[in-house]
Design goal:
By secondary structure, the chain is mostly helical. The chain contains two helices and no strands.
């Protein structure tokens, strides 16, 4: 999932350089949403693995 965040971030940067501000804003917002989903899933997996070790 982190790979998709990087792909959308690079897409947003390239679109911004070429002046496609609408596409850049959309790609950046998708990247932000995916990053927070990744972060939540990562934290949940850390908690689950921590409780299984006991």
């Amino acid at each position: 999932m982190l790979r998709w965040v990087i792909i959308f971030l690079v897409l947003a940067l390239i679109a911004a350089v070429f002046g496609f501000t609408g596409i850049a804003a959309g790609a950046a917002s998708i990247a932000k949403i995916l990053f927070f989903v990744f972060l939540v899933l990562f934290l949940i997996s850390l908690v689950v693995r921590g409780t299984r070790g006991r």
